[in-house]
Design brief:
The structure holds two protein chains of two kinds. Chain A is an alpha+beta fold. Chain A is built from five helices and five strands; from the N terminus they run ββαβββαααα. In chain A, strands 2-1-5-3-4 form a five-stranded mixed beta sheet, with helices on both faces. In chain A, helix 2 (about 85-95) crosses helix 5 (about 140-155). Chain B is of the alpha+beta class. Chain B is globular and about 55 Å long. Classes of the chains: A alpha+beta, B alpha+beta. The interface of A and B includes residues 18, 19, 41, 68 and 113 of A. Bound molecules: flavin-adenine dinucleotide.
Chain lengths: ~160, ~260
Amino acid sequence: MTSVTMTVNGKKMSGEVEGRTLLVQFLREAQGLTGTHVGCDTSQCGACVVHVDGVAVKSCTMLAQEAAGAEVTTIEGMANPDGSLGVIQQAFQDHHGLQCGFCTPGMVMSAADLLKTNADPSETEIREYLEGNICRCTGYHNIVKSIQAAAATLRG
Amino acid sequence: MYDFEFVKPASVADALAALSDEDAKPLSGGQTLLPTMKQRLAMPTKLVSLAGMAELIGVSAEGGVLTVKGATPHAKVAAEATAYPALAALASHIGDPAVRNRGTIGGSLANNDPSACYPAAALASGATIVTTAREIPADEYFQGMFTTALEEHEIITAVKFPIPEAANYQKFVQPASRFALVGVFVAKFATGVRVAVTGASEEGVFRWTEAEEALSSSFTPDAVASLKAPAEGMIGDIHGTPEYRAHLIGVMTKRAVAAAA
Ligand SMILES: Cc1cc2nc3c(=O)[nH]c(=O)nc-3n(C[C@H](O)[C@H](O)[C@H](O)COP(=O)(O)OP(=O)(O)OC[C@H]3O[C@@H](n4cnc5c(N)ncnc54)[C@H](O)[C@@H]3O)c2cc1C
């Protein structure tokens, strides 16, 4: 076992991991941050998307030790400091951007990644960006609407 | 996934030293190797991480050659290979954004998946694969499905792409995996046209020499309209028969020429 430390949602977090411990296992099992989901476990579905040093990655396909020293943001880090929903999360609630909710953490993290570089994405751009996020309820239509609404709010 | 030792060397020299153990393997973006290990199709005892190593990351253009260092992620090539737009476009359509943030050119070329995109670019461009031991021309590098000229523990440090006068990559996407069901990269140089096909053949990426000859005398979609790639030796699976793939080679080649010309 090796000790790793990374900054998760602004807080320093450490834990003992094996070589094979995945980042998502470190977040969920060692730190109790169960908002990040494991869907397919084969890097296809995107339920496990988190940000590492500012970019979206699939945390089921990255080793915990590879994130040593990194800044990690998970879905828990998307809420406002008072615990209320952040802008993108709130837009998903307002526009019925979730049905069963399993894919939602990954959808929100991918949306946040997109909106960092594209403040006003078109429907096509959003759909392309979400290529690696699968919603088995097939609720894509309202997910797109939610992201467009969040983008409008963030543009002010 | 079986457990292994994870090491993060500071330099390529340290990585080579760490790789001298039998059963040690380089780990770059992990977008292929980690899923393979989860399926227990690979079980290295040690992974030597190349990801994020400063001396292995970068895109630069000089004297008509675009150089991409070995551990450069697809997203960085998409954003920075402006001197070779067809290559940037190819990189920007590999997998999805999260895969592009981790997956690297060295990992893709070392793996040589028969449906991967970069092998087509490297072969059509007549690229040179630079390793810790030598420089390998693309024509000698690709040796069949998942097979390359790389020796055990040889690290790809860079890929040098001669920049063509015109080029384009057309990928017919396999909708579930987003890999190429068939992909064709066409590159026109002053010396002639090169056409590389991925996704189609049991032998992995290959050059379609008949189309190269036709396009070298006339770089128009019509020049290849009557050519037919043979179905023999093409991949047949639930996504498409060998005949279907052979047909797509012609269609994708025409589209690539139309887009490049
Ligand atoms: C959902 C998904 C969709 C994808 N879609 C596409 C697609 O459309 N087109 C496409 O082309 N690819 C696609 N890929 C594959 C992706 O591009 C991988 O990133 C790539 O093939 C492997 O690169 P890597 O850096 O992740 O390598 P790794 O997984 O780290 O390594 C792969 C192999 O290469 C070896 N290796 C790694 N780096 C080096 C090096 N520098 N020198 C020598 N050996 C090395 C490793 O030991 C290992 O054997 C997809 C992957 C996923 C998960």
